[in-house]
Amino acid sequence: MVNTGNDDRLYITIWGWLLGLLIAGVLVFTLHLATIPLLVLIFTVAVIKAALVIRNYMHLKAEHVLIYAIAGIPVLLILGMALMLIPDIVFHR
Amino acid sequence: MSSTASVLTRNNPHNGKIQSVPIGKIAIWWFLASEMMVFGGLIASYVLLRIHNGGWAGQAAHVRWQLGTLNTAVLLTSSLTMALAVSASRQDKLRRTAVFLGLTVLLGVAFLCVKGVEYTGELREGFTPASGLFWSFYYGMTGLHALHVTGGVVANLTFLVMAVRGDLWTGKQRRLEYAGLYWHFVDVVWIFLFPLLYLS
Prior knowledge:
The complex is a heterodimer of chains A (93) and B (200). With 93 residues, chain A is mainly alpha-helical. Chain A has helices at residues 5-30, 35-57, 65-89. In chain A, 80% of the residues lie in helices and 0% in strands. Helix content of chain B is 78%, strand content 0%. In chain B, α4 packs antiparallel against α5. Chains A and B meet through α1, α2 and α3 of A and α2, α4 and α7 of B.
């Protein structure tokens, strides 16, 4: 992968966004919103931060489809496991 | 067989139009996939049990979100310095690589120190892993994550020594890139642990 100085500027810009989103998430937490809106906002911010790191620092945006498959399968397995367990754990009191 | 050989290249003699993937990259992503299963399973279990138990807001109120926020900023910054170290290594800038690797190591150690301060305070207040399901998950997940940070610090320290000695440049830059992927993965795990344990 050829590298240029532009990559470094991009990394610093992404870092600025990550810190901004961190502050935004903490500010939302301190607003003492209702539980559901709070959780939705906080985890939306977390997903955006993770996507920024994975896409730009881990360079997934430029990866081969094979890497997407390797990284995607465990995510699907975890989501599948959680969905299958919801009836037994969440609704079984 | 060179370390940059491609699985696709080896398996398909007519692969002229196929983008190759280095074996090392496949290996590190495979490893990260197994790590996703470990942390993903823990996180999914935590979320499901927390919903089942009606939330653990009472217990979660005792963790110090200010220190968690500080640690998140530290780890995000260490991801930047790691990315800059890998970038410098690709440009064969030895000294710059060493400087950014050193900063990454220092930030990793700072993260562990802050976590140690947190643990000390929580244990002094009587919150141990046996204090309830929330605390079991808290110590289990953050402890496992801290072990991964420690492993990353050791790996980065090894590459730092190599960079200072000047022997990082004999086809070894890719190894630093793989160490970077691991470090960023550890950062991504924390990005999810932080709101789960500190903000909700």
